[in-house]
Amino acid sequence: MDKVIITCALTGAETTKAQCPNLPVTPEELAQSALECEQAGAAIVHLHVRNPDGSPTADKAVFKKAIDLIRKKSQVVVEITTGGAVGMTPEERIDPVSLEPDMASLDCGTVNFGNDYIINTLPIMRQFAAEMNKYGVRPTLECFDISHVVSSHILIKENLIKPPYHYGFVMNVPGALPYNHKNISDMISRLPQESEFTVMGIGRAHLPAIFAALSFGGHIRVGFEDNIYYSKGKVASSNAQFVERAARLIKEAQKEPATPADVRKFFGLRS
Ligand code: ZN
User: Fold this and answer.
1) Domain extent for 176
2) Strands (E), the chain
3) Residue 81 is part of a domain; what is its CATH number?
4) How far is the CA of 87 from the centre of ligand 1 (A)?
Protein backbone atom coordinates (compact mmCIF):
# COMPACT_ATOMS: atom_id res chain seq x y z
CA MET A 1 0.00 0.00 0.00
CA ASP A 2 1.51 3.36 -1.06
CA LYS A 3 -0.50 5.56 1.25
CA VAL A 4 0.12 5.67 4.99
CA ILE A 5 -2.68 4.64 7.35
CA ILE A 6 -3.10 6.62 10.55
CA THR A 7 -4.89 4.71 13.31
CA CYS A 8 -5.93 6.61 16.40
CA ALA A 9 -6.31 4.62 19.63
CA LEU A 10 -8.77 6.95 21.29
CA THR A 11 -8.79 5.91 24.93
CA GLY A 12 -7.39 2.43 25.74
CA ALA A 13 -8.01 0.75 29.08
CA GLU A 14 -5.42 2.35 31.34
CA THR A 15 -5.22 6.10 30.72
CA THR A 16 -7.28 8.17 33.18
CA LYS A 17 -8.97 11.58 33.07
CA ALA A 18 -6.75 12.60 35.97
CA GLN A 19 -3.68 12.10 33.76
CA CYS A 20 -5.32 13.43 30.67
CA PRO A 21 -8.31 15.77 31.17
CA ASN A 22 -9.51 15.55 27.55
CA LEU A 23 -9.52 11.76 27.41
CA PRO A 24 -12.72 10.62 25.64
CA VAL A 25 -14.57 8.19 27.90
CA THR A 26 -18.31 8.13 27.16
CA PRO A 27 -19.68 6.83 23.82
CA GLU A 28 -20.57 10.43 22.91
CA GLU A 29 -17.03 11.65 23.64
CA LEU A 30 -15.55 8.71 21.73
CA ALA A 31 -17.71 9.47 18.67
CA GLN A 32 -16.76 13.17 18.76
CA SER A 33 -13.08 12.28 19.05
CA ALA A 34 -13.38 9.78 16.17
CA LEU A 35 -14.91 12.48 13.96
CA GLU A 36 -12.15 14.97 14.80
CA CYS A 37 -9.51 12.31 14.10
CA GLU A 38 -11.06 11.47 10.74
CA GLN A 39 -11.11 15.16 9.80
CA ALA A 40 -7.44 15.40 10.81
CA GLY A 41 -6.45 12.46 8.57
CA ALA A 42 -7.03 9.22 10.50
CA ALA A 43 -8.51 6.27 8.61
CA ILE A 44 -8.99 3.86 11.54
CA VAL A 45 -9.99 4.37 15.16
CA HIS A 46 -9.04 1.68 17.66
CA LEU A 47 -11.75 1.41 20.26
CA HIS A 48 -11.95 0.46 23.93
CA VAL A 49 -14.95 1.45 26.04
CA ARG A 50 -15.34 2.48 29.66
CA ASN A 51 -17.88 2.44 32.46
CA PRO A 52 -19.28 5.81 33.54
CA ASP A 53 -16.66 5.89 36.33
CA GLY A 54 -13.90 5.55 33.73
CA SER A 55 -12.96 1.92 34.47
CA PRO A 56 -12.56 -0.39 31.45
CA THR A 57 -15.45 -2.61 30.35
CA ALA A 58 -16.19 -5.11 27.57
CA ASP A 59 -19.95 -4.52 27.90
CA LYS A 60 -21.48 -5.14 24.49
CA ALA A 61 -24.18 -2.51 25.02
CA VAL A 62 -21.55 0.19 25.60
CA PHE A 63 -19.55 -0.97 22.56
CA LYS A 64 -22.72 -0.93 20.48
CA LYS A 65 -23.59 2.59 21.52
CA ALA A 66 -20.08 3.86 20.76
CA ILE A 67 -19.89 2.08 17.38
CA ASP A 68 -23.35 3.29 16.35
CA LEU A 69 -22.53 6.90 17.29
CA ILE A 70 -19.17 6.78 15.48
CA ARG A 71 -20.82 5.38 12.34
CA LYS A 72 -23.51 8.05 12.48
CA LYS A 73 -20.95 10.84 12.61
CA SER A 74 -18.17 9.59 10.35
CA GLN A 75 -16.90 7.11 7.77
CA VAL A 76 -13.85 6.12 9.81
CA VAL A 77 -12.97 2.41 10.00
CA VAL A 78 -13.81 1.03 13.46
CA GLU A 79 -11.37 -1.46 14.99
CA ILE A 80 -12.37 -2.74 18.41
CA THR A 81 -10.01 -4.22 20.96
CA THR A 82 -10.15 -7.89 21.88
CA GLY A 83 -7.16 -7.43 24.17
CA GLY A 84 -9.59 -5.72 26.50
CA ALA A 85 -8.06 -4.92 29.84
CA VAL A 86 -6.02 -6.71 32.48
CA GLY A 87 -8.28 -9.16 34.37
CA MET A 88 -10.93 -9.68 31.65
CA THR A 89 -11.66 -13.26 30.58
CA PRO A 90 -11.18 -14.31 26.93
CA GLU A 91 -14.97 -14.80 26.69
CA GLU A 92 -15.58 -11.19 27.74
CA ARG A 93 -12.90 -9.89 25.38
CA ILE A 94 -14.21 -11.61 22.22
CA ASP A 95 -17.92 -11.05 22.84
CA PRO A 96 -18.22 -7.56 21.18
CA VAL A 97 -16.94 -8.98 17.85
CA SER A 98 -20.52 -10.14 17.21
CA LEU A 99 -21.43 -6.44 16.80
CA GLU A 100 -19.62 -6.68 13.45
CA PRO A 101 -17.12 -3.85 13.73
CA ASP A 102 -14.93 -3.44 10.61
CA MET A 103 -11.79 -4.72 12.31
CA ALA A 104 -10.60 -6.02 15.67
CA SER A 105 -7.24 -6.46 17.32
CA LEU A 106 -6.05 -10.05 17.74
CA ASP A 107 -3.23 -10.39 20.26
CA CYS A 108 -0.76 -12.99 19.03
CA GLY A 109 0.59 -14.17 22.37
CA THR A 110 0.63 -13.78 26.11
CA VAL A 111 2.14 -10.50 27.25
CA ASN A 112 3.34 -8.79 30.42
CA PHE A 113 1.69 -5.48 31.22
CA GLY A 114 4.03 -4.19 33.89
CA ASN A 115 3.27 -6.41 36.88
CA ASP A 116 0.08 -7.67 35.20
CA TYR A 117 -0.41 -9.82 32.11
CA ILE A 118 -2.87 -10.68 29.35
CA ILE A 119 -3.15 -14.33 28.40
CA ASN A 120 -3.36 -15.37 24.76
CA THR A 121 -2.72 -19.07 24.26
CA LEU A 122 -2.85 -20.60 20.79
CA PRO A 123 -6.33 -22.08 21.46
CA ILE A 124 -7.55 -18.60 22.48
CA MET A 125 -6.01 -17.07 19.37
CA ARG A 126 -7.62 -19.73 17.14
CA GLN A 127 -10.99 -19.13 18.78
CA PHE A 128 -10.70 -15.34 18.33
CA ALA A 129 -9.68 -15.72 14.67
CA ALA A 130 -12.61 -18.09 14.04
CA GLU A 131 -15.08 -15.65 15.67
CA MET A 132 -13.73 -12.80 13.55
CA ASN A 133 -14.17 -14.90 10.41
CA LYS A 134 -17.71 -15.77 11.46
CA TYR A 135 -18.69 -12.10 11.73
CA GLY A 136 -16.65 -10.80 8.76
CA VAL A 137 -14.28 -8.81 10.99
CA ARG A 138 -10.69 -8.26 9.78
CA PRO A 139 -8.00 -8.81 12.40
CA THR A 140 -5.07 -6.58 13.22
CA LEU A 141 -2.44 -9.06 14.38
CA GLU A 142 -1.02 -7.33 17.43
CA CYS A 143 2.49 -8.46 18.30
CA PHE A 144 4.05 -7.37 21.59
CA ASP A 145 7.02 -9.65 21.09
CA ILE A 146 9.04 -11.17 18.26
CA SER A 147 7.66 -14.61 19.15
CA HIS A 148 4.15 -13.27 18.52
CA VAL A 149 5.01 -12.68 14.86
CA VAL A 150 6.17 -16.31 14.76
CA SER A 151 2.90 -17.48 16.39
CA SER A 152 0.83 -15.57 13.83
CA HIS A 153 2.30 -17.83 11.12
CA ILE A 154 0.57 -20.78 12.79
CA LEU A 155 -2.85 -19.13 12.38
CA ILE A 156 -2.03 -18.27 8.77
CA LYS A 157 -0.89 -21.82 8.05
CA GLU A 158 -4.17 -23.12 9.49
CA ASN A 159 -6.02 -20.80 7.12
CA LEU A 160 -7.61 -18.84 9.96
CA ILE A 161 -6.36 -15.48 8.66
CA LYS A 162 -6.66 -14.29 5.08
CA PRO A 163 -4.27 -11.95 3.24
CA PRO A 164 -3.54 -9.09 3.01
CA TYR A 165 -2.47 -9.21 6.65
CA HIS A 166 -2.43 -6.21 8.95
CA TYR A 167 0.10 -6.39 11.76
CA GLY A 168 0.42 -4.09 14.74
CA PHE A 169 3.81 -3.99 16.44
CA VAL A 170 3.16 -2.87 19.99
CA MET A 171 6.52 -1.70 21.29
CA ASN A 172 7.66 -0.51 24.70
CA VAL A 173 4.92 -1.95 26.91
CA PRO A 174 6.67 -2.33 30.29
CA GLY A 175 7.83 -5.95 30.60
CA ALA A 176 7.40 -6.63 26.87
CA LEU A 177 9.53 -5.84 23.79
CA PRO A 178 11.37 -2.48 23.93
CA TYR A 179 11.26 -0.16 20.97
CA ASN A 180 14.52 0.00 19.04
CA HIS A 181 15.69 -0.40 15.45
CA LYS A 182 17.02 -3.89 16.00
CA ASN A 183 13.69 -5.20 17.32
CA ILE A 184 11.57 -3.49 14.69
CA SER A 185 13.82 -4.76 11.88
CA ASP A 186 13.62 -8.24 13.33
CA MET A 187 9.81 -8.16 13.40
CA ILE A 188 9.61 -6.85 9.84
CA SER A 189 11.98 -9.58 8.64
CA ARG A 190 9.56 -12.24 9.96
CA LEU A 191 6.42 -10.91 8.25
CA PRO A 192 4.72 -13.13 5.68
CA GLN A 193 4.19 -11.94 2.10
CA GLU A 194 1.26 -9.54 1.59
CA SER A 195 1.68 -7.89 4.98
CA GLU A 196 1.17 -4.31 6.07
CA PHE A 197 2.29 -3.20 9.51
CA THR A 198 1.46 -0.40 11.91
CA VAL A 199 4.05 0.63 14.49
CA MET A 200 2.67 1.45 17.93
CA GLY A 201 5.24 3.15 20.12
CA ILE A 202 4.06 3.25 23.71
CA GLY A 203 4.98 6.23 25.89
CA ARG A 204 8.38 7.63 25.02
CA ALA A 205 8.58 5.46 21.89
CA HIS A 206 5.65 7.37 20.35
CA LEU A 207 7.57 9.78 18.11
CA PRO A 208 10.46 7.44 17.21
CA ALA A 209 7.86 4.85 16.14
CA ILE A 210 6.23 7.34 13.78
CA PHE A 211 9.55 8.07 12.10
CA ALA A 212 10.35 4.35 11.97
CA ALA A 213 6.99 3.63 10.33
CA LEU A 214 7.71 6.25 7.68
CA SER A 215 11.24 5.01 7.01
CA PHE A 216 10.42 1.28 7.03
CA GLY A 217 7.29 1.58 4.87
CA GLY A 218 4.79 0.99 7.65
CA HIS A 219 1.75 2.72 9.08
CA ILE A 220 1.26 4.95 12.10
CA ARG A 221 -0.73 4.69 15.31
CA VAL A 222 -1.24 7.59 17.68
CA GLY A 223 -3.68 8.38 20.47
CA PHE A 224 -4.20 8.58 24.21
CA GLU A 225 -4.12 4.78 24.62
CA ASP A 226 -0.45 4.74 23.64
CA ASN A 227 0.84 8.09 24.81
CA ILE A 228 -0.57 11.26 26.37
CA TYR A 229 2.34 13.67 25.86
CA TYR A 230 2.51 15.85 22.78
CA SER A 231 5.97 17.05 23.78
CA LYS A 232 8.11 16.79 26.91
CA GLY A 233 5.86 17.32 29.94
CA LYS A 234 2.99 18.66 27.81
CA VAL A 235 -0.19 16.56 27.68
CA ALA A 236 -1.91 16.70 24.27
CA SER A 237 -5.13 18.69 24.06
CA SER A 238 -6.88 16.01 21.99
CA ASN A 239 -6.39 12.83 19.99
CA ALA A 240 -6.80 14.93 16.83
CA GLN A 241 -3.71 16.96 17.78
CA PHE A 242 -1.64 13.76 17.46
CA VAL A 243 -3.33 12.84 14.17
CA GLU A 244 -2.67 16.31 12.74
CA ARG A 245 1.04 15.97 13.48
CA ALA A 246 1.18 12.45 11.98
CA ALA A 247 -0.57 13.70 8.83
CA ARG A 248 1.91 16.59 8.54
CA LEU A 249 4.86 14.21 8.89
CA ILE A 250 3.43 11.90 6.23
CA LYS A 251 3.15 14.81 3.82
CA GLU A 252 6.68 16.00 4.66
CA ALA A 253 7.81 12.48 3.77
CA GLN A 254 6.15 13.02 0.35
CA LYS A 255 3.47 10.46 1.05
CA GLU A 256 -0.26 10.66 1.48
CA PRO A 257 -2.46 9.68 4.42
CA ALA A 258 -4.85 6.84 3.49
CA THR A 259 -8.58 7.59 3.67
CA PRO A 260 -11.11 5.27 5.33
CA ALA A 261 -12.25 4.32 1.80
CA ASP A 262 -8.66 3.38 0.84
CA VAL A 263 -8.43 1.10 3.89
CA ARG A 264 -11.84 -0.49 3.22
CA LYS A 265 -10.84 -1.24 -0.37
CA PHE A 266 -7.35 -2.54 0.41
CA PHE A 267 -8.40 -4.90 3.22
CA GLY A 268 -11.75 -5.84 1.66
CA LEU A 269 -13.81 -4.44 4.54
CA ARG A 270 -17.53 -3.94 4.19
CA SER A 271 -18.29 -0.39 3.09
ZN1 ZN B 1 -6.09 -1.23 22.60
Assistant:
1) 6-267
2) 6-9, 44-47, 49-50, 56-57, 77-80, 103-107, 111-113, 116-118, 138-143, 165-171, 195-201, 219-222, 229-231, 234-235
3) 3.20.20.70
4) 14
